[in-house]
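pls ignore typos typing on phone
pyridoxal-5'-phosphate + seq
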Amino acid sequence: MFPVWFLVLEIWSFKFHLVLPPQSFSHQLSPRCRSPVSTDSLNSELRDELRRLSEQGLLRSRREVIPLPGGQCRLNGQTLWNFASNDYLGLADDPRLKQAAIDAIQVSGIGARASPLVTGRTDWHARLESAISRFKQTESAILFPTGFAANLGTIGALAGPDDIVICDRLNHASLIDGIRQTRARLRVIPHGDVTACRQQLQQATGTRRRLIVTDSVFSMDGDHAPLRELHDCAEEFDAILIVDDAHATGVFGDRGTGLLEVAGISASQRVISIGTLSKAIGLQGGFVAGSSVLINWLWNSARTQVYSTALSIPVCAAAVTAFELITAEPERRHWLRETSSQVIAGLRQSGWHVPDPARGPILPVLVGDAALTMQLASALEERGILVAAIRPPTVPAGTARLRVSLCVSHGQEGIAALLDAFQAVRATQQ
Ligand SMILES: Cc1ncc(COP(=O)(O)O)c(C=O)c1O
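k done
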C-alpha cells in the first residue's frame, strides 16, 4: 500500500499535469468546426455534422437488445440469432458463472466501493489475479476496469516522448489511443508487415525504448498477427512486444490461453500479454499478465487502473469460474474452430467474399459500400439473423463489411439458420 503523501501527489499531478487527450478512431469534425465555437452555435454545428454522417451512410444509432439464452436475442419484438456478440464460448449465460456471481454477492455485495489501491482490491480480486496468472502461466497479473483501459494504461505506463512505438495499421482503437497519449514517436506500419517493422526499428536511433504493439487476432478481420516474426524482430532490436490477446484468450491454443501460446512465446520481460474479460470470458474487465516487476510497475503507474474503481465483485467471482471452465472444457474452442471452417465454406459457396486469412470465430464478409452493408444487415435481420454492420471509420473507407461472430451456443441449428439467410439475401442481390 502506498503512503498517503504518494496518493495526494498523484492526484495533484493527475489534475494539473496535462497529457494529450487520447484521440480515438472517431469522426473528425470538419475544418469549419475547429475554429472557436460559442456554446450557442455548438448544437447547430453538431446537428450539421450528424446530418453529414447520415448523408454518407455513417450515422450510428443505438438500439435495445434483450439477450436470450442459446445465442439468441430479442430486438424490436423479433427473436434473432445473435451473430454480433463476442461471447464466443457462450459463458455470459452459463449457470455456473451466474451461481458464482450470486454467491459472491451474498457474501460481499456488488460494487468494489473504491479504487484498487485504496480499499477496492478485495480477496475476490486477488483470487482472480491468481487465476489469470495461473492460466497465462506468468508470475503475476493485474486487473483493469476494461480491456480498453488495460491497453491505455499499460502503454501509458511504459512509453514516453523518448521512445518509439511501432503500431500495426489495423490495431484496435485502444492501442492507438494508448500510444498517442504517450507522445512517443508513433510509426504505423502496413498490416502484418514484419519487414516494415524491422525497417522502422533499424532507423530508430537515439530512442530510450522500442515497443512493437499489435492485436493478436484483429477484431474487424479475424486474421492473426505474425507473432513469431514480430517476436524475433523484438529480440533482434532489443524491443518490447505488447500483444493484445483480447479475441484469442479462451479460443486459441491447446490450453486456450491465446495466440502467444500458439506461437510458442511465453510472456517475459520482452513480451507483455494484455487481455479482456469481455470477449470469450463473457464478462467485463481487462487484465495484464506478466512478470512480477512489470505488474508492480503497473500498480504504480497505470493511471486507468490506479484512478478508477476496481472491478465489481460478482464479475471477479464469475471470471474465476470462467477460467476454470476454459481449462476443463476444451470442446468449446474446438467447436468454434471446426464450425468456423464450415461457415467460411458455406458463405463462399453462396457467393460471399470472406477473405482468406479469416479463421476462428470472427468472420468478415466484405461488402465495400457502407450503405449497401447496412441494407444487407437489415435484410438478414428480416430473416432472423443479427450480424454487425461495420463501416468507416472503424474500418478503412471502401471496406465496409458484415461481421459474423460465432458462439458455441448457436449450435448447428443457429449455423444452418445463418447460412440459409445469407444464401437467401445473396439470391436477392443477383
Ligand atoms: C482487440 C481489442 N482490444 C481491446 C478491446 C477493448 O476491450 P473492452 O471491451 O474490454 O474494453 C477490444 C474490444 O472491442 C478489442 O477488440
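Confidence is low (pLDDT under 50) at residues 1-27. Residues 146-148, 151, 172, 174, 215, 219, 244, 246-247, 276, 278, 286 surround pyridoxal-5'-phosphate (CB under 6 Å). more later
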